[in-house]
C-alpha cells in the first residue's frame, strides 16, 4: 500500500504512546541512589575494618590475650576515645541503612542519617581537633611522634579523616535523597 508518509499511517507505530511509557521520577531514581548508598556503605565498612585492625591489638591486650611486645613492634600510638566511638558507633548507621532498603523504610533511613551525623562526623571531627597540634608540629619540624613503616602516622591519620569525611558526606546526601523520595511516595500512596 502506497502512502505519502511511508508504509505505515502516522501515529500507528507506537510513538503516540511515548508519554505513557515514562517512569515516575522517584521510582526511577530510588534504585540509583540505593546502589550509590550501598557503594558508600561498602567503602565505610572497608575503612571501618582498617580502624578495627588498628584498635584490636590494644583491646586484646586489655583482655590479656596478647603481650605488649606485639603492640610495640608496629609503633602505633595508643588508641583514643574518638577511635572507639567511631568504631563501635559508626557501624550502626550502616546496618540501619541496609535494613531500610528492602521495603523503603523511612524511619530506618532516618536513624541511619542521624547516626551518621552523631557517630560518624562527631568522632571524626573530635579526632581532627585532637591531632591538630601534632600535625602542625610535624609540618614545622618534619619530626613525627609515631611512625608507621617509616611514614608519619599523623599524615596517615589525616588521610583517613579526609576519606572518612567524604564517605560520610556522600552517605548523608544519598540517605537524605532516599528519605525525601520515599516520604513523597508514601504521602502519595496514603
UniProtKB/TrEMBL annotation:
Assigned protein family: Belongs to the jagunal family.
One cellular-component annotation, GO: endoplasmic reticulum membrane
Listed name of the protein: Protein jagunal
InterPro entries linked: Jagunal
UniProt-listed PANTHER family: PROTEIN JAGUNAL HOMOLOG 1
Keyword annotations from UniProtKB, A to Z: Endoplasmic reticulum, Membrane, Transmembrane, Transmembrane helix
GO terms, biological process: endoplasmic reticulum organization; vesicle-mediated transport
Compartments where found: Endoplasmic reticulum membrane
Source organism, top-level taxon: Eukaryota
Membrane topology: Multi-pass membrane protein
Transmembrane segment boundaries: 41-61, 81-101, 113-133, 153-174
